[in-house]
Write a structure and sequence with these properties.
- The complex is a heterodimer of chains A (270) and B (357).
- Chain A is an all-alpha fold and 270 residues long.
- Chain A has a domain at 60-219: MetI-like (MetI-like fold, Orthogonal Bundle), CATH 1.10.3720.10.
- Helices cover 73% and strands 0% of the residues of chain A.
- Chain A is built from twelve helices and no strands.
- Chain B is α+β, with helices and mostly antiparallel strands and 357 residues long.
- Chain B is built from eight helices and 18 strands.
- In chain B, the strands form four sheets. Chain B has a six-stranded mixed beta sheet, with helices on both faces. Chain B has a five-stranded antiparallel beta sheet with strand order 13-17-14-15-16, with no helix packed on it. A four-stranded antiparallel beta sheet of chain B has the order 2-1-4-5, covered by helices on one side.
- The longest helix of chain B is centred in the middle third of the chain and has 18 residues, at 166-183.
- Chain B starts with a strand and ends in a 19-residue tail after the last strand.
- The chains are: A mainly alpha (270), B alpha+beta (357).
- The A-B interface holds A 159, 161-162, 164-172, 175, 179-180, 183-184, 262-269 and B 50, 52, 71-73, 76-79, 81-89, 98-99, 102-103, 130-134, 136, 139, 146, 150, 163.
- The structure holds adenosine-5'-triphosphate and magnesium ion.
- Residues 13, 16, 18, 36, 38-44, 192 of chain B line the site of adenosine-5'-triphosphate.
- Residues 13, 16, 18, 36, 38-44, 192 of chain B line the site of adenosine-5'-triphosphate (ATP).
Chain lengths: 270, 357
Amino acid sequence: MTGTAARLLPVAVVIAALAPLYVALVGSLTPDARLFQSVPLVPTPLVWDHYRALFGTRGFWVPLGNSLVVAVATTLLALLLGAPCAYALARLRFRGRAIVLALVLAVSMLPQISVVPPLFLFLRELGLIDTHAGLVLPYLTFAMPLTIWFLVTVFRQVPLEIEEAAMMDGASRLVAFRRIVLPLAAPGLATTALLTFLFSWNEFLFALTFTLGPERHTVPVAIALFRGQYQVPWGEVLAAALVATLPVALVVLVAQRRLVSGLTAGGVKG
Amino acid sequence: MASIQLEHVEKRFGDDVAVRDLSLDIADGELLVVVGPSGSGKSTVLRLIAGLEAPTAGRIRIGGVDVTDTPPQARDLAMVFQHYALYPHMSVRDNLAFGLRMRNVAAETIARRIEDVARSLGLTPLLDRRPGQLSGGERQRVAFGRAVVREPRAFLLDEPLSNLDPRLRGSTRAELALLHQRLGATMVYVTHDQEEAMTLGTRVAVMRDGAIEQVAPPTEVYRRPANCFVAQFVGNPAMNLLPGASWRMAAPQGLETPRSGLTVGIRPQDIALVGPDEGDTAGRVELIEPLGGTALAHVRVDGLPRQLVRVLLADDADIAVGARVGLRPRRDRLHFFNGSSGCRITATDESDGHGSD
Ligand SMILES: Nc1ncnc2c1ncn2[C@@H]1O[C@H](COP(=O)(O)OP(=O)(O)OP(=O)(O)O)[C@@H](O)[C@H]1O
Ligand SMILES: [Mg+2]
């Protein structure tokens, strides 16, 4: 009995999670006129109007491209800068390590809205308002603490003995980091990258504040600004939401391949 | 190959002293076994030699050159870790090759050396597997292979056999001894197993609380332990240490009884059980532990209520629990220690007192 329940539970969870997505899919393929009558489970006929409008008159390519550039750049930079930081915090013994770690966490505790005004002044001073860099930079203030905290845990899970073995074998710390630690931490790195990407992809407040015109808007901002004075184009909003989900789904699929567990099996005896 | 010297080396972790004022001279080609109870600082000594820890005081020399401030990768030593520490994401072949590649050895040389080492250690069929696909014993051999293939200046081994089952441990120990003979390499071998120490080492260093209690060839450590600690740590079953006053026997000539009294040490195999009135002292057998062929009797000796004296029985002994027996220790196998310091007291005529065994 419990066995059946245990098997049904994941199915139920998946259905619950996918149901809104399905409704969105159906809605995005239903003409506006029928959208607020009862939406059929299987829309007939399929109408691609919303998508055509989205990429035609709305020019949804632009925010999509912006979001992609900003999210990818944030993720790469956060990993590139965060990984050495996290490694140092995880492995090297130095004075004030605990304090640094606590400070890093403290930064990510600040309510986002409280840093918007000072960041705005900074970015204006640097002439970065309404640029990609002007989004990547503030995103890093949140992405870096996230990355560092995750990666410290990830690196600590790589057995120290393996790293020491590499150093005995003639590898410098840097080489051991690149050739031994990074490959062994790959699943953790992939997970961290995924979370950073998701965070940047979904971010709204900074994107709204630090961009001025539609040519710099990211996806969440663009969708929010779809609404006209008198009506919300729900069909297009749903279509846009689905399109925005696609890159995330792709990233998850790619990352999942790296999330192979048991990669360290056999290196050290448990 | 190279000699290794530690000069007044000290290692503190905060306020804890892991190694205190330790000096040790390891000759070229020697297999020195460092033995001691858990937490005595054996691994720390090895890691200091390796360069994985920096000493808080003292100097370390390898091949006569001061390497105290040299990082591990520049010391050209190989280490075999207790938990193997193989690179899990690489094949066995790449595990063996890693150290050579780091030293920019030519590809053909690497291939040839790997082939040689793999053949001698029986690793050839395993070369394309990952460590996760090997048994514990095979992983251990790969760990040895990774050290041997490098042809380092010295080998450091930290309890390399402790994860193997007893039979495999025995055979691997013999292989290691052969390997040492064949390579003539300097090896420092850490273990908490005194038997391993006695069978493997050309010399044995016994450690306690971060200090070396005695360094000597195994037979010397066994026959002439420097103090009570070494006496009881080395040898199985452990030596009896008894207050000197409890034995009705004359101290040998030339032996000065210290004011703090005398502790007498006698190994269980050096006591003969005789009739209740025939021995130096008598007692009652409280417990008999069979040890395969022989058995170990625990005897409550008259006048020694708080301690049981261990006696190794001859294989044909017919003694039951509860029997009254006399104990006759072999006079020439007695050890005398200072009652308070535990240090060995040497009689002037002791040198001829210890025969071979
Ligand atoms: N990194 C460290 N930080 C703090 N204390 C340490 C560290 N490494 C070792 N110690 C301490 O130093 C002492 C010696 O440790 P060590 O590992 O050398 O013992 P050992 O003889 O190898 O013991 P075992 O047989 O259990 O492996 C111990 O008291 C231990 O707690
Ligand atoms: Mg140890």
